[in-house]
């Protein structure tokens, strides 16, 4: 129980960040024509920012299920790596059943906080660490979907940039600390701009653009700047 | 923003695919793998992927994220500066919103 409380306490700052971003998600989903319950259902079933925004784009654009599956696979592939690392970090209270539960709650921030603990993490700690951000994510979506519409248009428009601000808060510090990551990020961004602005290339649908840019930039990075041997 | 008229059936199909793929990616390695990834290329590729994804999702979309280039640009620059100073997710996100809101308000005067 003590571990659960510690986990919850560590989860509070994550939840606060999630509320603002999921608020935007709820708002965007509803202004695109979805019901509030659909927005909340997406958030409760996915708990992932970039993936949900891309998924919403695909639904809005009337994309195919293949496009949806591929875009989620590529955008969320990072979770596989985190899931792998986390499997080395959990202690023996984490049995097979709790691995299935914890799997639902692996996000960039939850992963980062869990890995920053100076010792192995227990099942109860992980449950607490996941529960609070999960409630924040679902609750923020509900709030955005329900009351987002009564916000003045100017404020709603300004909130649209929140998710990208959060993305920058994740990639810029990494680029500062490693020039290899910086080059990979710049390569991906330049490619993505090309797909928006260059004739013919801009015909490719947005789900695939992210897949192509991310895979190309990461392959270049892995070939030119492989991580040091362990 | 474009409006959608997605049927309930398509919505649930999309939701199932989206949630199913996302869940399997997260749960399967944790449930199955108890050893380390040793392939150096794969390890490097997986390490770069999240940042490449976010880079591609952010640019150039951030420039179109509010309903005017000036307000988007102001939010982008603010977010870049705050992120460079290693501010937290919430600070950077709200800072970007505040900057684009202010520019919008000033332009209306």
Short overview:
Chain A is mainly alpha-helical and 230 residues long. In chain A, 78% of the residues lie in helices and 0% in strands.
Enumerate how many helices of chain B there are, as a single number: 4
Largest sheet entry of chain B: none
Distance between the termini of chain A: 36 Å
Write down how many β-strands of chain B occur, each being a DSSP E stretch of 2 or more residues: 0
- Element pattern of chain B in H and E: HHHH
Helix and strand sequence of chain A:
HHHHHHHHHHHH
Rounded Rg of chain B: 20 Å
SS-derived structural category of chain B = mainly alpha
Helix content of chain A: over 70%
- Average pLDDT of chain A, rounded to a whole number, is 88
How many domains would you count in the coordinates of chain A?
2
The proportion of residues in beta strands of chain B is under 5%
How many DSSP helices of chain A?
A: 12
Low-pLDDT parts of chain A are none
Largest sheet of chain A, in brief, is: none
β content of chain A, as a range? Answer: under 5%
Fraction of residues in H or I helices of chain B: over 70%
Overall residue-averaged pLDDT value of chain B: 88
> Over all CA atoms, what is the radius of gyration of chain A?
19 Å
Folded structure, characterized:
The complex is a heterodimer of chains A (230) and B (109). Chain A has helices at residues 2-31, 36-46, 49-60, 65-75, 77-89, 96-104, 108-115, 123-147, 153-159, 162-177, 179-197, 206-224. Chain A is mainly alpha-helical and 230 residues long. Chain A has two domains: 2-159, no CATH class; 178-224, no CATH class. The longest helix of chain A has 30 residues, at 2-31. Chain A is globular, with a radius of gyration of 19 Å. The model of chain A has no long low-confidence stretch (mean pLDDT 88). Chain B is mainly α and 109 residues long. Chain B has one domain. In chain B, 49% of the residues are buried. The chains are: A mainly alpha (230), B mainly alpha (109). Chains A and B meet through helix 1, helix 2, helix 3, helix 4 and helix 5 of A and helix 1, helix 2, helix 3 and helix 4 of B.
């Amino acid at each position: 129980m003590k571990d659960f409380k510690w986990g919850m306490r560590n989860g509070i700052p994550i939840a606060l960040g999630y509320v603002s971003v999921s608020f935007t998600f709820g708002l965007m989903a509803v202004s695109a024509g979805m019901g509030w319950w659909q927005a909340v259902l997406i958030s409760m079933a996915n708990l992932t920012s970039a993936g949900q925004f891309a998924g919403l784009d695909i639904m809005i654009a009337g994309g195919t299920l293949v496009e949806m599956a591929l875009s989620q696979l590529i955008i969320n592939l990072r979770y596989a790596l985190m899931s792998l690392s986390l499997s080395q970090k959990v202690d023996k209270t984490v049995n097979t059943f709790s691995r299935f539960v914890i799997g639902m709650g692996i996000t960039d921030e939850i992963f980062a906080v869990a890995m920053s603990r100076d010792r192995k993490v227990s099942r109860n700690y992980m449950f607490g660490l996941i529960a609070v951000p999960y409630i924040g994510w679902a609750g923020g979506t509900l709030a955005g979907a329900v009351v987002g519409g009564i916000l003045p248009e100017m404020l709603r428009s300004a909130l649209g940039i929140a998710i990208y601000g959060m993305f920058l808060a994740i990639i810029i510090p990494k680029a500062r600390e490693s020039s290899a990551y910086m080059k990979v990020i710049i390569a991906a961004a330049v490619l993505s701009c090309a797909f928006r602005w260059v004739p013919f290339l801009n015909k490719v649908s947005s789900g695939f653009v992210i897949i192509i840019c991310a895979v190309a930039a990461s392959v270049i990075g892995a070939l030119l700047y492989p991580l040091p041997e362990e | 923003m474009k409006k959608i008229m997605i049927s309930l059936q398509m919505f649930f199909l999309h939701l199932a695919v989206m949630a199913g793929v996302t869940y399997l990616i997260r749960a399967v390695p944790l449930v199955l793998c108890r050893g380390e990834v040793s392939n150096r290329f794969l390890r490097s590729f997986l390490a770069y992927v999240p940042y490449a994804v976010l880079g591609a999702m952010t640019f150039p979309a951030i420039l179109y994220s509010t309903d005017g280039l000036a307000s988007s640009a102001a939010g982008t620059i603010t977010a870049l500066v705050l992120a460079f100073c290693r501010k937290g997710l919430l600070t950077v996100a709200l800072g970007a919103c505040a900057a684009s809101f202010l520019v919008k308000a000033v332009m209306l005067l």
